[in-house]
TrEMBL record:
NCBIfam families, A to Z: VI_chp_3
Protein name per Swiss-Prot or TrEMBL: Type VI secretion system protein VasD
Protein species of origin: Cupriavidus taiwanensis
Record InterPro entries: T6SS_SciN, Type_VI_SciN-like_sf
Cross-referenced Pfam families: T6SS-SciN
Matches recorded under PANTHER family: OUTER MEMBRANE LIPOPROTEIN, OUTER MEMBRANE LIPOPROTEIN-RELATED
Coiled coil regions in record: none
């Protein structure tokens, strides 16, 4: 029997490969269409994306303190006052010249007026203290220091408390040297360093608030100017 031989013309393509090639071409066109759609979506969202990026950048600047926050003052995080209390070896020695432990109270206040005007006895009686300070008192806490002790802390003060007060309950307190009041915002930057001695506190770092009508004291860092009461 005579065999019939089929020959492919030069440059022609086998018939069985044509469907595969058509499928590849369709896939390519689909991919191109999807890419174009994605590009259009990106271009359309540029304005929105730019706004989001700008907001994120603004928040980052606020977080590192390079841009003022738009939050209300009451919603901002508490201030942190660097507080250092250094007790001398003659702490609370009084007239008998015998050192003793002392109770120190830290007050967070909205206004310093009632605190500065209150006499020493006010802070010995809790009920009288509460009545005198009233709505100005935001928070109070106390600690006990012993002779020679050093106490350092970042004291957290809520934003509503514009004043930070310190009271030392000496056995024989020197006049005007057993309590100090400070502006919280200023103290957050400068810090407060207080020495506690036989009958008085000294102030070496920080600016104490002066009571209304009183002259500013320039020797708060000198214990010799206190004059212990006997």
């Amino acid at each position: 029997m005579r065999q019939i031989e089929f020959r492919q013309e030069p440059g022609s393509e086998p018939a069985q490969q044509r469907p595969r090639r058509a499928a590849v071409a369709a896939s390519a066109r689909l991919a191109a269409g999807l890419a174009a759609l994605a590009c259009a979506s990106v271009l359309t969202g540029c304005a929105v994306g730019g706004t989001l990026l700008a907001g994120a950048a603004s928040g980052a600047l606020e977080a590192v303190g390079l841009k003022p926050s738009n939050l209300p003052e009451s919603q901002k995080p508490p201030r942190e006052v660097p507080l250092k209390l250094y007790a001398g070896t003659n702490l609370n020695a009084a007239a008998d010249n015998r050192p003793a432990a002392i109770v120190v109270r830290l007050y967070k206040l909205k206004d310093p007026t009632s605190f500065l005007q209150a006499p020493f006895d006010t802070f010995i009686d809790p009920q009288r203290e509460q009545k005198t300070l009233g709505a100005d008192l935001v928070q109070v806490r106390e600690m006990t220091l012993i002779p020679g002790q050093r106490y350092e802390i970042l004291e957290k003060v809520t934003r509503e408390a514009g004043t930070f007060g310190v009271v030392a309950l000496f056995r024989s307190p020197a006049p005007q040297r057993w309590k100090f009041a400070f502006d919280t915002a200023k103290s957050e930057k400068s810090g407060v360093t207080i020495g506690l001695h036989a009958c008085a506190m000294t102030l070496t770092v920080g600016d104490a608030i002066t009571p209304a009508g009183a002259a500013a004291s320039s020797n708060l860092n000198l214990v010799s100017a206190a004059g212990c009461r006997t």
